[in-house]
Amino acid sequence: MSSTAFMAFLLASFVLAVTPGPGVLYIVTRTLAQGRAAGVGSVAGVACGNFLNAVGASIGLAALFAVSSLAFTLVKFAGAAYLVYLGLRLLRAPAARPGNAGEPLAPAPVPRLFREGLLVALLNPKTTLFFAAFLPQFMHGQAPALWQAVGLGGLFVAIAACTDLAYVLLAASVAPRLSRVAGAPAWGRWVGALTLIALGLASALTGQRQAR
Fold first, then answer.
1. Residue-wise pLDDT tens digits, 59-106
2. Are the C-beta atoms of residues 148 and 139 closer than 8 Å to each other?
3. What share of the chain is helix, strand, coil (3-state, %, to 5)?
4. First-to-last C-alpha distance (Å) of the chain
5. H/E/C letters for each residue in 76-103?
6. Quick check: 132 and 57 in contact, CB under 8 A?
7. What's the alpha-carbon Rg for the chain, to the nearest Å?
8. CA distances in angstroms from 82 to 20, 21, 46, 200, listed in the order given
């Protein structure tokens, strides 16, 4: 890849990564509801899931999703159901002080948040289709396609992880101010849960266009 094409790839990747989408909303929701560590764990899980989607696109899963509406629909609805499940579980999560529904949520184990972020990303077939459409625009015809796709996909995921971490830091800096507002912890739980449920419903109802 020429230096000009590489710079174009970096710029396009940054613009796409920094644009708020379902992935950013999921990460910000986790951060506001359960703290910075929860946001960082979610970013790590989502990044790993997105990288596996890039690898999947490189080896032909995108072609399967493109030609098989059943495969795409099954994975899409599984991902949507999982987001709704996470929203419902957030409503039932224990407060930091047992018995006080107005307190902030107790921190969730980071490994569990990593696993949930990984599944959220993996169960989004639109991400695989996105990589299949985006990466070939910057690939060289004379080099091995598989390794180019994996390398460019990994670089895109790294850029997206950095921008997602910036959103986590921003959300974590805002969260203490929100917590000082009367009733904010209780409202925060509902807003976070309803956001996840809305993301799930939106994912189930939308087509193949939006990946992140």
1. 876 676 666 777 777 777 887 787 788 778 777 765 544 444 444 455
2. yes
3. 80, 0, 20
4. 25
5. HHHHHHHHHHHHHHHHHCCECCCCCCCC
6. yes
7. 18
8. 21, 17, 14, 7
Please say whether the beta carbons of 80 and 203 come within 8 A.
Answer: yes
Q: Specify which residues 105 forms β-bridges with.
A: 95
Q: Could you tell me which residues come within 8 angstroms of residue 140 by beta carbon, excluding any fewer than 6 positions away?
A: 1, 148
Q: What is the pTM of this model?
A: 0.73
The residue whose two tokens read 């790590």 is 44
| 5: CB partners within 8 A, 6+ apart | 138
CA distance 119 to 175: 26
Domain positions in the chain are 22-205
Query: Which tokens in the block code for residue 49?
Result: 């899931």
Instruction: Please tell me the number of Cα atoms within 13 Å of 177 on its side-chain side.
Output: 5
Query: Which pair of tokens denotes residue 161?
Result: 């992880």
